[in-house]
Design a protein that fits this description.
Structural class: mainly alpha
Largest sheet: none
Strand content: under 5%
Number of domains: 1
Low-confidence stretches: none
Mean pLDDT: 81
Number of strands: 0
């Protein structure tokens, strides 16, 4: 039993339950940077634990009525085979190049973390009016179904290869493409991810990329964590949570780059996310001020 890994699992589980984001994006770099797990094993273990964690979260969201089953189904039709292609590609590259492939793999993980962190920050800071286009129900016409399958296939392959993206990237697609309300985004994202991660996790397990003891340690923290997160999801505002998560992921990306052999100064690993966080705070404060109503009787 490793208390540090259990604490990691608890924190990541709470974030997954609250936002649908943070599973692969946080746990994989934590396992690589803090625990010292080999990248291929970190990816496989992350996907295996994530399958169980997001099954718990998906069931909870299904009971709360925050899951769009139609969109989840069509996304899965693309993402499930896509994830198998990603796992196959990862194994082929690792078999062909051995340990020499690890810096490349770390670079891929870091690149995905940068993309995820930037999309989260951009969504939180520069897309405040998306709520005006949001809808509770998505009409599943032919174009929508084809779009869902295509998005699922691409992001499923990315997940199978790097373990990153099941929450942040799918969630972004649910907002930008399908224009779903925030709680429906989180619920649909977590439910779909459960299906996707079982496929990718089992594929990695059969490939020998999963540390079962490490998975058990993570689950000791993540299962109660996701239970807590889904319980309070409707009462915790995501306005501050999402930018904070984006900053953490940005720092994780820079840390993983150092493992890949890129000379990233410690000051940059700390300073860049801190600067992004400060900018996010200023934007949020400025936006809050503009929303303050004028005192009664004041001139227009």
């Amino acid at each position: 039993m490793d208390p540090l890994v259990i604490v990691f699992g608890l924190g990541v589980g709470i974030l997954v339950g609250l936002t649908g984001i943070g599973g692969g994006s946080l746990m994989t770099p934590l396992l690589i940077l803090a625990v010292g797990v080999k990248p291929v094993v970190a990816i496989g273990t992350d996907l295996a634990y994530g399958a169980i964690t997001k099954t718990v979260g998906g069931w909870r969201h299904l009971r709360k009525g925050t899951v769009d089953l139609g969109v989840s189904k069509w996304l899965a039709l693309g993402s499930v085979p896509g994830s198998l292609v990603g796992v196959w590609l990862l194994n082929r590259l690792h078999d062909a190049h051995g340990d020499a492939f690890e810096p490349v793999l770390l670079g891929l993980v870091a690149g995905m973390l940068v993309i995820v962190s930037v999309t989260i920050l951009a969504r939180a800071l520069f897309m405040p009016k998306l709520h005006e286009r949001e809808r509770e129900t998505v009409e599943l016409d032919r174009r929508t179904k084809i779009t869902a399958v295509a998005i699922g296939a691409v992001l499923g392959m990315v997940l199978g290869l790097t373990s990153v993206g099941s929450g942040a990237l799918i969630g972004l697609a649910l907002i930008l493409v399908f224009r779903m309300t925030p709680h429906r985004v989180v619920g649909t994202d977590v439910f779909h991810a459960a299906v996707l991660l079982w496929t990718a996790g089992l594929a990695h397990l059969l490939s020998g990329n999963v540390d079962l003891l490490l998975t058990a340690n993570i689950l000791l923290g993540s299962i109660p964590g996701v239970w807590i997160g889904t319980h309070v999801v409707t009462s915790v505002p995501a306005n501050g949570l999402r930018p904070a998560l984006g900053c953490v992921l940005l720092g994780s990306a820079l840390g993983v780059l150092t493992k890949a052999g890129v000379a990233v100064p410690v000051a940059a690993i700390v300073g860049v996310p801190a600067a992004a966080g400060a900018f996010a705070w200023l934007v949020h404060r400025s936006r809050a001020r503009t929303r303050v109503p004028a005192p009664e009787g004041a001139p227009a």
